[in-house]
Amino acid sequence: MTLLPPPRKTYDVCIVGSGAGGGIAAYALTKAGADVIVLEAGGEWYASRDSKMMMPNYASPRRGGSTKTQPFGELDGCIGGWEIEGEPYTVAPGSRFLWWRARMLGGRTNHWGRISLRFGPDDFKRKSLDGLGDDWPIGYDDVAPYFDRIDRLIGLYGSKEGIRNEPDGIFQPPPAPRCYELLVKKASDKLRITCIPARLSVITEALNGREACHYCGQCGRGCSTRSNFSSPDVLIAPALATGKLTLLTNAMVREVIVGPDGLATGVSYVNRLTGEETQVRARVVVLAASALESARILLNSRTSRFPNGLANSSGTVGKYITDTTGTDVSGYIPAMENHVAHNEDGVGGMHVYMPWWLDNRKLDFPRGYHIEVGGGLYPPGAGFMGGIQRYPSGGGYGKKLKDDYRRYYGATIGFSGRGEMIPNDDSYCEIDPNVVDRFGIPVLRFHWKWQDYELNQVRHMQQTFRALIAEMGGQVFRPMPTKEQDYNIATGGQIIHELGGTRMGDDPKTSVVNSNCQTHDVKNLFVADGGPFVSQADKNPTWTIMALAWRTSDYIAEQIKRRTL
């Protein structure tokens, strides 16, 4: 790694961001022989070296509690959050939005749930099916070969099910369901809800020099054996090994620099540690800073030629942003009382999940959701599934207290819904004209609106989860929320699946990038994160971000070879 790029050097490709999209782009382009520089706003961090995978909570200063920069716990593989000192964002009056930013090498790939789902054939053509939003200019067959590459390189577990819009991948064997997951499967079958092995990017067999998961359950802290996926160990390290990658950390990109011919010539960035501003020169620029950060960079890249921001002749940079819908319900399950001591080993996540199983044409909302499952041996009273575990009355002192803990311990099961939002005109980001961050860079201002489509969907989630708990003979301690309570829908941005802002399309008047994620206005400028997504889908987006980034990288490499970039 170098602290400053060599003066006057011009790289083949400059990539902004080192997470899912940026990591794949660095890996693919260096393997193709390109001379690449990656700029990352955070510091260097490798799970294989820096994680606290096996440290007990009592050994940490805060007993594992959260901090502002590690909101998921002091030992979690997370540096960032919804609030970063000196790096604000604003929300327009009447809106509610939370913007989570990572500030570490690899970004969010260090601390995500690793739920690794392919978008399906229908997910690229939703307008053709229900008349809402827009179709993508590409289809599943265009992306499928890159899904296969991702599967082979990174690895994931799962099972071949043959469900049309839940495409099967190249799976390793899934771990066996835990006891509570078997109860969930039984109840799902009774209610005719599809329940199958989960699909997580955690390897259960050795792959590409990485060890199989040893089931310590600490995936969220980062895996020192590299058994789960994170960009620094699986993508950035091999890219560095080619000798073709220069890595700059603590580099906060201000804008893309444009030459007199209207082409990108590099980027300007601020050293977060010193405040010094420097430029990097490159023949091709790839923005992979995360969907909303990439939109911010483009909107801040204003010149006389691009007065409304770079690549924004359509006026759609920052528009049509989406996030996954979400809500949670947990319940007390008497069948799990006084459980026999048993092995509950597994990955740090679910072993089963429920993909969308219904026909929306028979419902009052047009797009689906999937169900995530949680439970098991958590301490009574601990935070769980977005709420608090509750148990029937009990306690006291001495033997009675111990007996009640043994009776109720592990007797809570929870469900989280994750569904598709339809893009709308009232959900977008723009530059706040009055606020800058500590580097002097103008910040984003968010506008957000859930439509009735999403509220009806979340009501259905709440009803479904309660039906599952009832089928297991359980109790839900919170009453069914009402529409006035928005059915307990997550705040926009809270699920951390924000997409859009630089959407893909064939028409330069209504989109920012083409089918290769190449901006319509600047041919040597690309976006390789969640920004080009035309629609959200009822699936976590990371696997599709990486497949698209690899596809874009192949296009860039080919154009460099032909000397057209």
In short:
This protein is of the alpha/beta class. The chain is 21% helix and 18% strand. It has two domains: 1-54 and 99-157 and 222-311 and 505-565, 3-Layer(bba) Sandwich (FAD/NAD(P)-binding domain); 161-197 and 326-419 and 451-488.
Architecture blueprint of SSEs:
Layout: E1 10-16, H1 20-31, E2 36-39, H2 47-50, E3 80-81, E4 90-91, E5 101-102, H3 126-130, H4 140-154, H5 179-190, E6 196-197, H6 231-241, E7 245-248, E8 251-258, E9 264-271, E10 277-287, H7 291-300, E11 325-332, E12 352-354, E13 369-375, E14 383-384, E15 387-388, H8 398-408, E16 412-419, E17 428-436, E18 442-447, H9 452-471, E19 475-476, E20 525-527, H10 542-562
Parallel strand pairs: 1-2, 1-10, 2-7, 4-18, 10-20
Antiparallel strand pairs: 3-5, 6-12, 8-9, 9-10, 11-16, 11-19, 12-13, 13-16, 14-15, 17-18
Helix pairs in contact: 1-6, 1-10, 4-10
